[in-house]
Amino acid sequence: MTVEYYTRAYDAVIQGIRRHTNNYDMKYVGMALGGHNEFDWYRYFLNHSNHAPDIPLDMISYHFYAGANTRTNPKDYEAFFSQLDTFTFEVEQIEEIRKLLSPETRTTIDELGPQFPSVALLNWTTGEGTAKYWTTKLLIETVDIDNDEGVVTQTSDVSGENIFSQAFVGKNGRRWVLIINKRYANVDVFLPGCTGGRMQIVNEASGFGSATEVTLTSSRITLSPYAIAVIHMPSET
């Protein structure tokens, strides 16, 4: 299917719904692309001049699935991170196109994989929260979305091959750092000034429970394989 054909079909569906229901309040999501990096589709579909008059472009959607050589060898999961880095860059390019052509259109990335039982939010036999659930909960409870501001974050892992890190500064001097181990191995991180602060960490040891919390007694932090840690820096004196 070409983008030109799809756009005509999209317009015809909306016109048909309106003709038979007289409902002009319904919202529509277009594209749902599996090949999220098909930039010509975004350029054409988000150009209002390619649509019939009065056709809304309420939302677009696209999908992303990371893959590995096996589902059973945790070492292979390291490949997910480089794929996610590439996808993140592609999202930036898609957003540039959207903001230029149709800034009022919203975006939903409504399929984000892989989709295995092991990456569901809940254990499908016990109902307990998985690492994905507890990581999501940790971030929701940590982030002050109205006040926290990301700042330039530099580590000794300049290329970002082993860890992902992002520091934030909030109200009243609040400072915290998100660190993710991208390797199936222990990784040491040196974070000056963190001694006396708190670390909440989701890893294999935390299992199906909430993030483990410890008080940091050293600036050297050892992250176990694929650990996700939030470091709450001590107050500056």
UniProtKB/TrEMBL annotation:
**Pfam families assigned to the protein according to its UniProt record, in alphabetical order:** Apionate_lact_C
Tell me the InterPro entries matching this sequence.
ApnL_C, GH
Q: Signal peptide: which range, if any?
A: none
| Record-linked SUPFAM superfamilies | (Trans)glycosidases
The protein's name is D-apionate lactonase C-terminal domain-containing protein
Q: Which ranges carry the D-apionate lactonase C-terminal domain?
A: 168-231
User: Which stretches are transmembrane?
Assistant: none
**Superkingdom of origin organism:** Eukaryota
Q: Which organism is it from?
A: Rotaria sordida
